[in-house]
Amino acid sequence: MVKVKVDRETCIGCGVCVSLCPTVFALDEEGKSKVIKQPEEGECDLDAVASSCPVGAITVEK
């Protein structure tokens, strides 16, 4: 099972993760990314999402 986390201290709220995988990420009331549900296997290219984060706030655990 894959687990994804967002470091809210690091997140700048750019929204790239939400654009790439809106079924897993959303912006909260503070404008920062949050995980709205853990992904199903193969749901999104989470490695691409994590590498697209400009501040490296997304961690993918496999």
Give a verbal description of the structure:
The protein is of the alpha+beta class and 62 residues long. The protein has one domain: Alpha-Beta Plaits. It is built from 2 helices and 4 strands; from the N terminus they run βαββαβ. Strands 1-4 form a two-stranded antiparallel ribbon. Strands 2-3 form a two-stranded antiparallel sheet. Strand 2 and strand 3 form a beta hairpin. The protein is globular and about 30 Å long.
Secondary structure blueprint with pairings:
Blueprint: E1 3-6, H1 16-20, E2 25-27, E3 33-35, H2 46-52, E4 58-61
Antiparallel strand pairs: 1-4, 2-3
Q: What gross morphology would you assign?
A: globular
Count of the separate structural domains: 1
Task: Note the gap between the termini.
Answer: 6 Å
Estimate percent helicity: 10-25%
**CATH class designation:** Alpha Beta
Number of helices: 2
Order of helical and strand elements: EHEEHE
Mean of the pLDDT scores? Answer: 96
The CATH topology is: Alpha-Beta Plaits
The main sheet comes to: 2 strands, antiparallel
Q: Provide the β-strand percentage band.
A: 15-25%
Considering the chains and any ligands shown, give keywords for the structure.
62 residues; alpha+beta; Alpha-Beta Plaits; two-stranded antiparallel sheet; two-stranded antiparallel ribbon; 4 strands; 19% helix
Task: Describe what is shown at a glance.
The chain is an alpha+beta fold and 62 residues long. The protein has helices at 16-20, 46-52; strands at residues 3-6, 25-27, 33-35, 58-61. A hairpin with a 5-residue loop joins strand 2 (25-27) and strand 3 (33-35).
